[in-house]
Structures are given as structure tokens and as C-alpha cells.
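hiii, so i know i said id send this last week but things got crazy w the move. better late than never?? heres the sequnce for the chain we talked about at the cafe, plus the structure i predicted for it. fair warning i was half asleep when i ran it
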Amino acid sequence: MRYDEFELTDSAYRHGFNDEDFAEMLRRRHLLLRSRRGKWVGYEIFGRNRKGEYLLAAGRIVQSTGVTRFRVFHLNRMSPAERRRFQREVNP
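okay and structure toks below
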């Protein structure tokens, strides 16, 4: 997945997380998967922020005026099952 920048939509901020939380997920070890939900091709990113919280971000790639953006429309804590999957995949 390649993009020039990212942006969080209003719905991504709904759970109290922000741009810095998402950026921290990308700086640390994370897991990137094609989304299993919805009809649009999207991605899910599993990772941790600076506080150590296990977060899941969902979004898709969009093109706009020559810039490729990863538009994040969901950013929240992982469920227990998602957390186990992340730990199993990232720390084998």
C-alpha cells in the first residue's frame, strides 16, 4: 500500500483518538491487512500508539489532485480477538 499522506475523517475521531495516535501506529510494528468488511477495497491496520493501547484503523486509498491519501474512517481499540491476532502475527 503506497500513499503520500493520511487524513482522518470526522468518524475516525469519534472514539477519542487523533492523528498522532495513528502516526504512532505506523512508526511502530504494525500489521496491514486488506479489509474483510464492506464492498469497497480498503485496509485495516493493527498497531499500538505511544501509550501502548492496541488500536485498529480502517481506511482506503483515495486520489485527489495528484496526491494519494490514506483516508482513515475508523480508529478505535482492538477487540480481544483482534488483539490476540495482532500479537500472534507480529510476535511469532
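btw Residues 5-90 form one domain. thought thatd interest u
miss u guys!!
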